[in-house]
Amino acid sequence: MFGKTAKEATRNTERAVQRCIDPSCGSSYGLRERIYVCPRCSGTLEIDCGLATREDAAAVRRRWAERAASRDPRDQSGVWRYREMLPFDEDAPFVTLFEGNTPIYEAPRSARYCGLNNLRLKHQGCNPTGSFKDTGMTAAITQAVVVGARTAVCASTGNTAASLAAYAGRAGLQSAILLPRGQISAAKLAQSLDYGALVCEIDGNFDDCMRLIQELGDDPSIYVANSINPFRIEGQKTVAFEMMEQCAWQVPDHVVVPGGNMGNSTALGKGFQELLDLGLIQRLPRLSVIQAEGAAPLAHLFANLDPSKSAGGERLPETMAPVENPRTLATAIKIGAPVSWKKALRAVLRSGGKIISVSEQEIADAKAMIGRDGIGCEPASATTVAGMKKLVAAGHIRPGDSVVGVLTGHVLKDPDYVSHYHRGTLSLESGAKEGSAPQRIAGAFQNAPERVAANKAAILATLERRR
Ligand SMILES: *Cc1c(COP(=O)(O)O)cnc(C)c1O
Ligand SMILES: [Zn+2]
């Protein structure tokens, strides 16, 4: 087991602390302190698990592989199977829907599209509620139970809300989702309603909802599971462990992920760094993050960064200019001021990756190409393949490199988008003044339904024409 020497604490929760990531502060706090930012400097917190192992890498890998074949509910989760890496004890009240365990696919058509010899896509949309948020929410809701909360809350219209509602339901906790009144899309909230969440329609905008969430966080009965929650990052980092097992511990040259609030990229970076620190891998994959052009504050910052001055991620800029009116049809990454930007930027710089943006057309076409490989994903997920195509063209990724893309959400999360693309009617409302024309997105790989006569010959003829 990890840390079995007399001097080291044997319980994970005794070794782990919450720590401010600002190097000039670096304050640390106990795990049970219900803080969401550093009380001293308002900096972002992360969890330092105090990991140290006296085992050799082979023994750890073997134990994880054995657990994958076990019937213990903790082992059937693709998150809790790696529990010695997490800030919870063996006897924690795990709340699980058997998240993780997501497939990694060869994607030959998408590879060709990008100019790569090979490409693998790890599909986090195959989680219980259809997005990677579940791998983090299992940890956050378990922590909510540990600290004795009665209600879990967040402000989100999308996948976070669905995931929170499901895990709270699983734990028998109440859940509440705060949303601005009149801005609620029924399709996105359907899951949350089904999982029994209280959906509060607030008279105000999204910022008002965020402010309310912060105020609610002071109440001891309430647990806040928004994007800044460091326990979510802990659960999400296990995707790096599972990916390495699926790659037979051969470190890929590049790992590419979409970027919204940057929790996912932060978590992957942390996961790989911990594997490196423990000697389970010998080098880091280059981690690249792709944003949508209309919501790309970190890509802008990155483009203007002087890498020689950032000291491999050890010296980070103080501020990032937010995007005031983020615009993209990839709603899961429609974020103007990503909360975890510093942690993500640090991980990208340490690994030697890039942060770039892609256009709406590039996202839409990449999504259709991923679909041709038989893999259905949400628009935000397709930024990965769109981004790789650009990074190959720019020479950052070489055609023979080994590349893994992370698909973040399931195709059925946003069926309207898919339908419009294939019928050639996809468009993005103009963010500019009222009345200016929406931006049309062409269905370059359009696949609209065809009207075919009700006879065998007509169907065969159509098939022949489309062959
Ligand atoms: C949340 C989400 C993202 C963005 O992840 P961040 O951690 O906010 O960067 C991307 N795609 C999907 C499908 C998501 O649900
Ligand atoms: Zn601090």
Topology:
Elements: H1 12-15, E1 17-20, E2 28-29, E3 45-48, H2 57-68, H3 73-76, E4 104-106, H4 108-114, E5 120-123, H5 133-146, E6 151-154, H6 159-171, E7 174-180, H7 186-194, E8 198-202, H8 206-216, E9 222-224, H9 230-236, H10 238-246, E10 254-258, H11 263-277, E11 286-292, H12 297-303, H13 307-310, H14 341-351, E12 355-358, H15 360-372, H16 383-393, E13 403-407, H17 415-423, E14 426-428, E15 439-441, H18 456-466
Parallel strand pairs: 5-13, 6-7, 6-9, 7-8, 10-11, 10-13, 11-12
Antiparallel strand pairs: 1-2, 1-3, 4-5, 14-15
Helix pairs in contact: 4-16, 5-6, 5-9, 6-7, 9-11, 10-11, 11-14, 15-16
The structure holds pyridoxal-5'-phosphate (PLP) and zinc ion.
Summary of the model, kept short:
With 467 residues, this protein is α/β, with parallel strands linked by helices. It has 18 helices and 15 strands. Strand 7 (174-180), helix 7 and strand 8 (198-202) form a beta-alpha-beta unit.
